[in-house]
Structures are given as structure tokens and as C-alpha cells.
């Protein structure tokens, strides 16, 4: 039977109306109330469906009701200023409504939106204030705040917490914890020996990092300031983590009336698994342990006392067995794969001990006036004991797997033995007594401070190195046996230093269109070289009345650095106690721009800088060991441009991208060499003396790039990914005892990528746990898998200089760490 027109229309109407109605499902709802720790309703709590940009807020009674898609897994995110963000997961049937109660816990951290809108870090030149929680998630071999700093300034060594800023050495950086200046070991010569950083990331509340242009209230160094503030607990809590490389425990709490608070952290670290795959094979036994504690007591409404203590022990034992190094030499005619095989005997045994105790008393006289007194004692005790001999064979290595000689040296070019010996001991004690004050007066904010430091140094160096190549010692003398290096010295010093500052911060205009000015003056007197220094510094910012949220900022001033132990130590081990301060004048100019990107708040900063330096003490870097000339024999300059973007590329996950361009040069007075004219038999017939002039400084790196990126599964925020990427172009490397080729060699570009994955094993919803559960008291438990050096890049940190039978010198690279997998379990309560 043929279908009629009426039946066809009836079928079409059925598809148009009946089927869509049948496909439409009744929505589901989630309703409830949001309360604080005291079960008081919270109004204005933001509630969004994970992965969406829009949502609702709780009413004045803390209640809410939100429509969701049924029969599909989803998550609700609850966030409110001053509270930790909570996430709840659901799977509801059609037409179902679930009623819940959500309790938000007060958090020490500040929401990302608040950080981005903070005006202080936008108005002060060079100031970067990352979220401390970022440090805890950063996949890095050396866990800590310094690993995050390296994203901003670049790095060339993952084994150390040291960093260089805008062309300066690590010795040019200041570090403060709760206003106490902290120091680090001085004798270490490679990152393998280095232990834990002083800063415990689990205890950090605020991070303020100045990479230049910092104000007069900070000390007398030429490059940067890292200002750390530890947490002040509000309730009992803590954390514990266990990983292959490091383990830690942190506890915090308050007394019943919250007058007394405590914050205690213990850490233990061993890089044995990390170092076991180094090119130098042997028995590595590195270990580092530290304990820190911060106690505060509220004496009255106006008086507060604080005590900060730290005990740190690092040990390094190495019994090397053998090492195989390989490099390639390219020429227009052929490519050589040159190898160096070294067989060792002997051992290295080092120990570094750091103790610190500091006490402060703060008086909040009134709302305008705040006074603080500080006293601290810092001690470093260091020992190095090295007695290692080695025999080496150098030549062309066979990489033909079809041959029986695969991997061995088949064409020897050189052979020899060497012996390194050291018995070094260093003790540094520093006492500090200081006072700081703040006085707010309408549009003025006065700051002042005065301090006295007494430093004692007891030092004994006894090092020598013997080299024998092709049957004779280097340097060659047919009549006597000479060592290639000999340092034998001792010193005992006492240095008294007086310093202080006065600074005024002035506000002009209003918040919509304002101009701020910070002007200050520092003074410093050193009893060792009898030098009195004055350092004026000024900073300014201007916020025009534009629709775009942009602030222009600038800073200029003097940044002089009095000499400390390492700068005074010459190559031969003697001390130059008359060494003058290194002096610099610096200028910074840039802007800060807040905008909306990817539907979320973003921030873009750009800064250009220039440094002019005089009375510079030149130095060479070998791994992390800095060896100074001990003389004010150079002048130098550095200039560059830095730009950074940070914000939530993914909602609720802060990310950073940093790019820097830089050039830094130095001119060493009296650096001359002879250029010879040769005859037909290659014999010198004439010579001319030339000045070396301007050369690259050891930290000269044209381009640096750093990125930290966070992400999570769109359907499950409990599965997260963290990526840490650092890139830096080549660095110069010095050829010893050669003026003509000073810093003429190059260390290849540094490329490092670390990635981490975390999964939430236990969330903060305690209502679903049984009363007898052993995890009843935990806030959350995370499991993390980290892959260090995911691309397995063979980064070079330094070179060994090897001569063949014809006296030609070759550079054999010392490599850093290969790929390594780390597992970590973190619990918080």
C-alpha cells in the first residue's frame, strides 16, 4: 500500500515533536549550605562546575542551588577569599537533587585573583611574588624555593640551589627568612656535595623576590634579594612526605588562647640514586638532614616575641672507581669521537654543618608605629678531605658495534696519571644585632634601620695537585719535581660591620591615577678595609588614568658590595684584607599590565636594566666553585631585557613563562698577552704586546627561557600535571693561565625538562570516612610521579683539559644528571 500524504506528514510531526520531548531529560540539582570552621554560614562563596567559566554564589544565609546535567560525572568547585578551595564530585540520576553541607577551611594562602590585583608587587621594580603553593608542586631535583627562582632567572645546574641574576655571581644575592639574613657553605666545589637549601618550602607563607632595583631597606649586594616569610599557624596541622630522594615532616599549631604558636620542620635527603648514574662511577654516599623551628609568643596586644632556629648537617662521601667521558671533534675532513677513560683510587669525604638561632621582639606601638629588634648568630663549619689518584688513557673511541673493540679507545693520543689532595677547614661565625622601624603618616611611610655585624673567620687551606703526562710532570722541569697546583695557607680574621638605612615611601594622587616615590639612603662601614659607603636608591611608579590596567615603574641607585671571605681569597690561597667593595650603579625601567586572557586574569611584565660596575673582582666558575682573583682589577657592565607572563592558563592552576635577553662584559686591568710573528720554520722573530680588552663574563648568557605549566583532566581535577622547562644559550668557560683565550671556550646550551603527575588519593570530605578509619584526621593525600630530565639531555657543567702527545689541549665535558624517575607520597592534616 502506497503511503498517503497525510501519513507522511504524521511521521514528520512525530519526529519534530515527540522524539525531542522523549530525548529531553529532567535536570538534576545540587543544593545545600556553605559554612566556615565554626559552622557559620558564608555568603558570596563562588560555586562553579569544573571546566566552566560561569557559576553562582551563595546567598546571605550561605545557601545555594545549582542545576547540573544528570547521568554524567561532574565536579563543583567552592572558592572564597581567605579560604582553601574545595572540590566535590557527583554523579546524579535524572531529576535527582542532592543536598550537602560544605565546610571551608581558612587558608594561609591568598587566592590567585588577589595576588594578581596586589599593588605592591606591581609598583616595586624587579619584584616577583609567586604563590608559595607553586613550590610544593614544582617537579625539580632540588626541591625548594630556589628551583622556582631558576624559572625566572635561568640555570645551568640542577644539582645546586645556587642561581645567578642579571649577570652577577651567586655571592651577589641576599637571602632573608623572617628578616634574618641567612648564609650557605663556601667550600663546596660541585653540586654533588651540596645538601638541602636553608628554606623549608613546607613552612613558607610569602615569597618576595627582587631581581634588581630593590629599595634601601635591603642590604649591600649587587644582584638580588629573596625575602621569605614563614607561616604563623592558626590551628593544629601538618604534612609529611616520602620520596625516593627526600623525606620530610612538618608540624604546626597554637595554644588554646592562640598566644603561642609553633612551626617545626624536619627534612632528610640523599642523592645516591641520582648520582649513581653519573659518568664517574663509584660509591656515592651523600646525605643531608636539617631541622627548623619557628616559635612565636604574643606577650600582649602590642608585644610579640619570635625565635627562629636551624640545624643542618650535610655529608658527602665518594670512592670513585672509573669514568668514561666522550666528546666529538669536527673538522672539514672527518669527525673524531674522542674518549677519556680514567681509573681511580682513593676517596673524598666532606662535611658541612650550619647552625642558626635568631630572636626578635616586635612592638606595635599604635596603628602607625611599629618597632622591631633582632639578634642572631649564624655558624658554618666546613671540612673537605680529598685524596684521589687516577690513571687515564685519552684517544679516539670506537663506536662501531660490529667490532670487538666497541666502546674502547683504539687510537691513543695521550696517557698519564694525576693526584688530587686537599685538607681544608673553614669556620665562619656571624653575630648580628639590628633594629627596624616603620611609621605611617598619611601619604608617607617612613622606614629605618640600623645594624651591627661581627664576623670571625678561621680558615686553613692545604691543597695540591700533581699531573704526569707522557712520562713527565706538568709543569716540566728536568731538575726538580713540581706540582701543577699548590695552596697552603691559613687565616684568622675578625670583621666588624655597621650598616643602616632611611627610606620614605610617598603616595601622590588616588588609586585610579597615582604616582608613588620611594627614596632612601644606605650606609655601610667595614672595619677590615676601613671603607665607608653611601648608597642612594630611588624608585617610582605611575598608574595613568587609562582604561587598560597598566603601571609604569622605574628604579635607580647605587648597589655596592663589601668583600666577604671568598672575594678576598686569591688563587694562591693568600688573603687580600685591603680589598675594596665592588661598586655598581644600576637603572631599571619597565611596566606591568593586567589583562584578561583565556577568560581569566593574566599579568604581563617587562623590564629593561643596565648595570655599570667598577672595582670589580674578577672570578672563574668551575661547576659551582667560584674562584676570585682577590683584586679590584676590573670594570664591567651588564644590560638586558626581561619579560614574564603569568596567570591561570588553566582555571585554578597558575602558570609562568619567562624570557630574558642579556649581555655582560668585563675589562681586566693589565690583562695583556704577546702575539708572535713566525718565520718559515715557525720560529718567533718578533712580538707585539696586546691588551685583551672586553671579554664575556662567566655568567654571560644571551637568552634564558623558563616555564612552569600546570594542567588537570577536564573531567577530574584530582589528576594534575606539572611541567618545568628551562633553556639557556651557551656560557663562556675559561682556559686557565691564558689571557689570550680568557673565557674563550663555550659550554653548550642548557636544556632541562622535568614533568610531574599527581593524583588525589584522599580528598578533604571527611563525612564519607568511617569513624574508625586511620585516615579520619587527614585533609588530603596525594601520590606523585616525577620524571626528571625527561628528554635525557646530556648537559655540560664544566670541562677537563687534556693534552695529547703533541701538547694539543682538548676539552672533555663533565656531564650533569641523566633521566631519573622519582615517586613521592604527600599527606596533609
Structure at a glance:
With about 850 residues, the protein is mostly beta strands. It is built from seven helices and 44 strands.
Overall CATH architecture of the largest domain: Beta Barrel
Number of domains: 2
Highest CATH level, the class of the largest domain:
Mainly Beta
How many beta strands in the DSSP annotation?
Answer: 44
Global morphology: globular
SSE layout:
Blueprint: H1 5-23, E1 28-35, E2 46-49, E3 55-57, E4 63-68, E5 74-79, E6 86-90, E7 97-103, H2 112-117, H3 120-123, E8 127-128, H4 132-137, H5 145-153, E9 173-177, E10 180-181, E11 204-210, E12 224-230, E13 237-243, E14 246-254, E15 260-269, H6 272-275, E16 280-298, E17 303-330, E18 335-364, E19 369-397, E20 409-441, E21 444-469, E22 472-474, E23 485-509, E24 514-526, E25 531-543, E26 549-558, H7 565-568, E27 583-597, E28 600-616, E29 619-622, E30 625-628, E31 634-650, E32 653-668, E33 672-678, E34 684-691, E35 694-696, E36 703-713, E37 716-728, E38 731-733, E39 745-747, E40 750-762, E41 780-788, E42 796-803, E43 809-815, E44 820-828
Parallel strand pairs: 1-7, 9-12
Antiparallel strand pairs: 1-4, 2-3, 2-5, 5-6, 8-11, 9-10, 11-12, 13-14, 13-44, 14-15, 15-16, 16-17, 17-18, 18-19, 19-20, 20-21, 21-22, 21-23, 23-24, 24-25, 25-26, 26-27, 27-28, 28-31, 29-30, 31-32, 32-35, 32-36, 33-34, 36-37, 37-40, 38-39, 40-41, 41-44, 42-43
Please explain how this structure is put together.
There is one protein chain. With 829 residues, the chain is mainly beta. The chain folds into 2 domains: 19-107, Sandwich (Immunoglobulin-like); 113-828, TonB-dependent receptor, beta-barrel domain (Maltoporin, Chain A). The chain is 6% helix and 58% strand. It contains 7 helices and 44 strands. The strands form 8 sheets. It has a 22-stranded antiparallel β-barrel. Strands 8-11-12-9-10 form a 5-stranded mixed β-sheet. A 4-stranded antiparallel β-sheet has the order 3-2-5-6, with no helix packed on it. The protein is globular. Residues 1-24, 108-118 and 330-334 have low confidence and may be disordered.
